[in-house]
Amino acid sequence: MLSSIRTFFDSFLQAADNGSGNTTDQLQLACAALLVEISAADQQTSAEEKQTLNLILRNKFGLNESRVEELWQLAAQESREATSLYQFTSLVNSHYGYEQKTALLRQLWQVAYADGRIDRFEEHLLRRIADLLHMTHGDFIRAKLASRPE
Q1: Can you list the domains of the chain with their CATH numbers?
Q2: For residue range 120-144, what is the model confidence (pLDDT) as tens digits?
Q3: What is the model's pTM?
Q4: 38: Cβ contacts below 8 Å, ≥ 6 apart
């Protein structure tokens, strides 16, 4: 998808092959890339979106601040060149069950809602990701409603 992100993943996956990481780390990075894509979907990444994304990556995925910042900068630099989300969603599909994919979809909506509005590009990208994760339209709507700020 993004050449710099691909390089980042390749170097991280090599570390995993050397015993310093595992499939869980690879899945967390794939999810992080999807979260970063949502934050950049409307061509404007707000401070609130970045804060929400950073909190999700740190708290839910256990990534340290340097990994979060590195992944963020790589994705922001090349997000306009994205051509496929498949490499990330296929990894998620092969290792995540329904509940985990539903939780990821809710987290993606949380990032999209962070700035107080849903842009049509964000919603379109979320729909594409939900389709690639083999989620139903009902799952898509339930995640949207569950993530909506009160």
Answers
A1: 3-147 (1.10.3680.10)
A2: 999 999 999 999 999 999 999 999 9
A3: 0.80
A4: 108, 111, 112, 122, 125, 126, 129
